[in-house]
TrEMBL record:
It comes from Streptomyces davaonensis (strain DSM 101723 / JCM 4913 / KCC S-0913 / 768). One of its GO terms (molecular function) is rRNA (uridine-C5-)-methyltransferase activity. PROSITE patterns: SAM_MT_RNA_M5U (PS51687), TRAM (PS50926), TRMA_2 (PS01231). InterPro entries: MeTrfase_TrmA_CS, NA-bd_OB-fold, SAM-dependent_MTases_sf, TRAM_dom, U5_MeTrfase_fam. Its EC number is 2.1.1.-. This is Putative RNA methyltransferase.
Length: 443
């Protein structure tokens, strides 16, 4: 006998008291029947009408939007962006919260993940509980930091207009202007052009150079448009068959500046989005590791070589750095960017495959900056066996970080300090830098 399909609750409304913030840009509430709701567009302590956007009867949890605020938090503000709100642009999560409150919420998420997945209190992690804004982001009330140097616009197939995706949807919210886009992106005027035939248009404005780039992803069979923007740009396209990024005109990379060096970043390669992020993270990592001349270091998930370059500068001619990165083009860029260092080597491949093959049994320092999924148990176990005197873990997902910190503890490492940065204002994203050392040393 086939099970009855469960009744969808989408569109149902519940009046609820909103509880604590949860990882992902929403808060937790419960219906009178005890079903858990993840509610967006609200804040802890509010009383709201929550309308279900996903979920069915008996589901472990429902997703919902606060469509009416019955009792508002003192941290609530009118969202400065006209495209924010239930069912609208999915790019930002906390437009309706004061900047200080956004950072407090992010701090609560990090603390909760540390407690739940690593069994650590903030004190045990050497963290004062604060979330630091990036330099220059402490703006007078009402001003929104314009930090997004890379914006992926989706194109409405019917109108050819560029916009941003709605939350957990393929639908496009057409916009005139994204408030958090960096000036170098806004001044291209992407939103004012017709992009018919394109599925998406990514705009990049480099930091420390005038390089601007757009990356076009055409729909199957569509011809590329002639790109005429308000500022000169290089143009790339994503190949329909191979998914690779190909040059249309101009340089196939942008030049970014960080820590006093210029880094070439080819299309599709990773670079931090906030203009101050690369410098902020290099400073936090170097202050935590305190590299000494002549030491041997690893830079794992090294991208185009940001931390490898910073380490090489500080380790001197006797020191050595090995970087590992899976992206082929990023590896070419890293080798180019660090060509003036004889003792920097960059290996291409997945860390979990390449690291064991290197035969390295001892290092002094490690930086790891994995993607959102984190490094995982095997890689952490391997790293824990190399005897590093300090390890810097740069993390864009506090849940993966907390899980991996648990593995490091099993491997004999303790967290010496943790610093948390708001490098993605208005969104729920947060960046952490944990510095680890052998537990025996700290105990
Ligand atoms: C968060 S980025 C960090 C890049 C660099 N550290 C920086 O700050 O510019 C993560 C990088 O890891 C690479 N990557 C993802 N999975 C990987 C894996 N399993 N092994 C090696 N590199 C990986 C991605 O291509 C990306 O360049």
């Amino acid at each position: 006998m086939q099970a009855e399909p469960k009744k969808s609750l989408v569109g149902e409304e519940y009046e609820v008291e909103v509880g604590p913030v949860a990882h992902g840009g929403h808060c937790i509430a419960r219906t009178d029947e005890g079903q858990v709701l993840f509610v967006r567009h609200t804040l802890p302590g509010e009383r709201v009408v929550a309308r279900v956007t996903e979920g069915e009867e008996g589901a472990r949890f429902l997703r919902a939007d606060a469509v009416e605020v019955l009792s508002a938090s003192k941290d609530r503000v009118e969202a400065p962006c006209p495209y924010a709100g239930p069912g609208r642009c999915g790019g930002c999560d906390w437009q309706h919260a004061k900047p200080g409150a956004q950072r407090r919420l992010k701090g609560e998420v990090v603390a909760e993940q540390l407690a739940r997945l690593a069994g650590l209190t903030p004190e045990e992690a050497g963290w004062d509980g604060t979330v630091m804004p990036a330099e220059g982001d402490k703006l007078p009330t009402g001003e929104v930091p314009q930090w997004r140097t890379r914006v992926q616009y989706a194109v409405d197939p019917d109108t050819g207009r560029a916009g941003l995706r709605r939350h957990r949807s393929h639908e496009v919210e057409p916009i005139e202007h994204c408030m958090i886009a960096a000036e170098g992106v806004s001044e291209l005027g992407i939103e004012q052009r017709d992009w018919s035939g394109m599925a998406s248009v990514e705009a990049i404005a480099a930091t420390g150079s005038q390089d601007r780039q757009v990356i076009l992803t055409p729909r199957p069979g569509a011809r590329l448009p002639i790109v005429e923007l308000d500022k000169p740009v290089s143009v790339m396209r994503v190949g329909e068959k191979d998914g690779g990024t190909h040059r249309v005109h101009g340089r196939p990379f942008v030049r970014e500046r960080a820590d006093g060096r210029t880094y070439r970043v080819g299309s599709g390669g990773f670079w931090q989005v906030h203009p101050k992020a690369a410098d902020t993270l290099v400073t936090a990592v170097m202050q935590g590791l305190l590299p000494r001349k002549g030491e041997m270091a690893l830079d794992l998930y090294c991208g185009v070589g940001l931390f490898a370059g910073a380490l090489a500068d500080r380790l001197g001619d006797e020191g050595a750095v090995l970087g590992i990165e899976s992206g082929k083009r990023a590896v070419e860029d890293a080798r180019h960017n660090l060509a003036d260092f004889d003792r920097v080597r960059i290996e291409q491949g997945k860390v979990e495959a390449v690291l064991p093959r290197t035969g390295i049994t001892e290092v002094d320092l490690v930086v790891l900056d994995p993607p959102r999924a984190g490094a995982g148990r095997k890689t952490v176990e391997h790293l824990s066996s190399l005897g590093a005197r300090r390890i810097a873990y740069v993390a864009c997902d506090p849940a993966a970080l907390a899980r991996d910190l648990g593995y490091f503890r099993d491997g004999g490492y303790r967290v010496r300090t943790l610093r948390v940065f708001d490098l993605f204002p208005m969104t729920h994203h947060v960046e952490c830098v944990a510095i680890l050392e052998p537990a025996a040393k700290g105990s």
